[in-house]
TrEMBL record:
<protein>
    <submittedName>
        <fullName>Amino acid ABC transporter permease</fullName>
    </submittedName>
</protein>
<feature type="transmembrane region" description="Helical">
    <location>
        <begin position="30"/>
        <end position="48"/>
    </location>
</feature>
<keyword id="KW-0029">Amino-acid transport</keyword>
<feature type="transmembrane region" description="Helical">
    <location>
        <begin position="191"/>
        <end position="211"/>
    </location>
</feature>
<keyword id="KW-1133">Transmembrane helix</keyword>
<feature type="transmembrane region" description="Helical">
    <location>
        <begin position="265"/>
        <end position="285"/>
    </location>
</feature>
<keyword id="KW-1003">Cell membrane</keyword>
<dbReference type="Pfam" id="PF00528">
    <property type="entry name" value="BPD_transp_1"/>
</dbReference>
<comment type="similarity">
    <text>Belongs to the binding-protein-dependent transport system permease family. HisMQ subfamily.</text>
</comment>
<feature type="transmembrane region" description="Helical">
    <location>
        <begin position="138"/>
        <end position="159"/>
    </location>
</feature>
<feature type="transmembrane region" description="Helical">
    <location>
        <begin position="370"/>
        <end position="392"/>
    </location>
</feature>
<feature type="transmembrane region" description="Helical">
    <location>
        <begin position="60"/>
        <end position="80"/>
    </location>
</feature>
<dbReference type="InterPro" id="IPR043429">
    <property type="entry name" value="ArtM/GltK/GlnP/TcyL/YhdX-like"/>
</dbReference>
<keyword id="KW-0472">Membrane</keyword>
<keyword id="KW-0812">Transmembrane</keyword>
<keyword id="KW-0813">Transport</keyword>
<dbReference type="GO" id="GO:0043190">
    <property type="term" value="C:ATP-binding cassette (ABC) transporter complex"/>
</dbReference>
Amino acid sequence: MASKENMLSSSAPRPEKKQSLIYNPTFRSVVFQAIAICALVLFVYNIVDNALTNLDARGIATGFGFMSQEAGFGIGLTLIDYDETYSYGRTFFVGLLNTALVSVLGIVLATIIGFLVGIARLSRNWLLNRFAAIYIEIFRNIPLLLQIFFWYFAVLQALPSPRQSLSLGESVFLNVRGLFFTRPVFEEGSVLISIALVIALVFSFGLARFAKKKQEKTGEQTPVFAISITAIIGLPLLAFFVAGMPVSLEYPQLKGFNFQGGFSIIPELAALTLALSIYTASFIAEIVRSGINAVSHGQTEAAMALGLPRNRTLRLVVIPQAMRIIIPPLTSQYLNLTKNSSLAMAIGYPDLVSVFAGTTLNQTGQAIEIIAMTMGVYLTLSLLTSLLMNIYNAKVALVER
């Protein structure tokens, strides 16, 4: 009987010892993170405090009051109204818009070139395949800065002077100062054309959604691209004639040593856009090639067995699946292109670094404020690009059921 009681007492659960708080993993992780944050804040505070003390000792004012002062210098390319009488705050927005312009143009061109070269890299045509391979190996292994110099100094600066311009009739002129062509001037009543264009775009978007749902239900395809292009061109053109043709053309004219009037593309913008696009496209091409190769060959064989031609198999079967692999590294290339646009200072393109972190900083001496604002702009552009690409990535991701 005693042995049985001993066995019952030994099998009963023993009370657990209360664990000390210092040995709790959750508590320790919170404490260590709090200490790290405090140390970081203290480190940043000391740096800022020392910098402000040194600036005060040298008689340099701090703060953002300089943003309202008159800039006093001109800028070669402006997307908004600007002259020497505007403030430094205006130069910030001019540089910001110029940076956004070259970044958007570069991303669009690099994507088009990269996809074309990446698909050509997988072509059965030996000549096309070798050409794509040579393109990739050449342009991705030459430093970007050298490519910018090549397009600017070796190509565009070798063009003739304005008086010996290469011309296409009386509307297009190409010379060392840039590309000049006619500019449409919208007069009274042209708002009808804008409304027609908006209606055409909304119609095209709705048609694309309708065609997608229709294909999912019935398998039938709708010629969305042809209909959309017809609507986008046809509706504004119809509105143009209905409104009494309220659009005139302004032709560029040679006056003195340069052309005036019309629309112009400065050589700095052309050189920077070409270099960024061609350089980044060489990396995008390899991303596209690897993404297509990652799609199972059985998908292609199944599409071919159903009678789909090779071009439609690539467009409807292979590339939609490859996009799930392509998008993450493609996002990194977009971010690199945006940040690499800061090399514009090397050829004088008036981007944010050249206009604001360069000329404005030299004139005002507000180093901390200007550099902080410039860094914040590139950080914001990068985060915005990542957000948009992540949204698109979530749309094309494979949905598990």
